[in-house]
Amino acid sequence: MQVSKVLNNNVIIADDPQYGEVVVIGKGIGFGRAERDHIDSEAAEKMFILRSRREQEQYKQLLPQVDEKLIEVMNEAIRTIGNRISSPLNEHIHVALTDHIAFALKRMEKGLTFQNPFLYETKEIYPEEYELAEYVVNLIEDRLGTSLGPDEVGFVALHIHSAITNRPINEVRVHSELISDLVELIEQNLDGGLNRTSLDYSRLLTHLRFAIERICRGEEVRATDRLAELLAREYPEMYSLAWKLTKVMEKRLGLPVYQAEASYLTVHLQRLAEREGL
Fold first, then answer.
1. What is the DSSP string of 104-141?
2. Residue 126 in contact with residue 157, Cβ under 8 Å?
3. Can you give the three-state secondary structure of 39-101, one letter per residue?
């Protein structure tokens, strides 16, 4: 490999004869190196490829601003995440998650903490991502001695989900916040708190998540007018609430919602209300 840029003592950008431009990580691999120096591939402890020129430039700009120990921890964490999931990670996770954690650590140093208002919903909707996020936060505490806390696990889980699904993190956050707000609206209308550990609550969250994803894809859900009429007659309170929820989704997402979504949501709400005794 030939060195194209030294980012710090332990990270360089190099031209690999097989993969092209790669990020190379190794203890002291950048120390005393200069551009066009040749390095044996065996000297690299870890290596990953940033194919996007935009990601390469963002990563180059980020690294000088981040502690080298954190860079090592984050690359280990991202490599482990990639090994544990079946689909490839969007390479933007190297920039986005590293930057997020670096900022979170700086906030912790100043005694500033952010409460995660949709932590429980994140854990229920994205269980695999949440488990991976717990690993990341625990690894940071083990290696750097700083505990980021459970709220941060939820934020990290959203970054991981974004990388797995190739969806922008802002979109993932918007959808998670929307689900949290829909749950709050349900509680207000049912005049009582929901048991957030129940199976029916978990099913409701899953239904809301997939409903939002269907709406974003423009996927039509079919149901007969007869079913809607039956639900409106038998469960008028839940049917009315379901329509309120679909109107909120329609407004927040800026997309039309098919009538059938309200019908299926009514069934979930009615079952939840019956089990909760509301």
1. HHHHHHTT-----TTHHHHHHH-HHHHHHHHHHHHHHH
2. yes
3. CCHHHCCEEEECCCHHHHHHHHHHHHHCCHHHHHHHHHHHHHHHHHCCCCCCCCHHHHHHHHH
Phi, psi of 51 (to 5 degrees): -75, -35
Cα dist from 33 to 69, 70, 163, whole Å: 20, 22, 33
Cα distances from 4 to residues 16, 52, 68, 129, in angstroms, run: 10, 16, 19, 35
Of 248, 243, 166, 257, give the one whose Cα is nearest residue 211. Answer: 257
Q: What is the pLDDT of residues 258-272, one digit of tens each?
A: 888 888 899 889 888
Name the pTM for this structure: 0.76
Residue 84 is predicted with a pLDDT of 93
Closest by Cα among 201, 159, 153 to 180: 201
* CA-CA-CA-CA dihedral for 68, 71, 72, 75, to nearest 10: -170
Tokens of 192: 């009582």
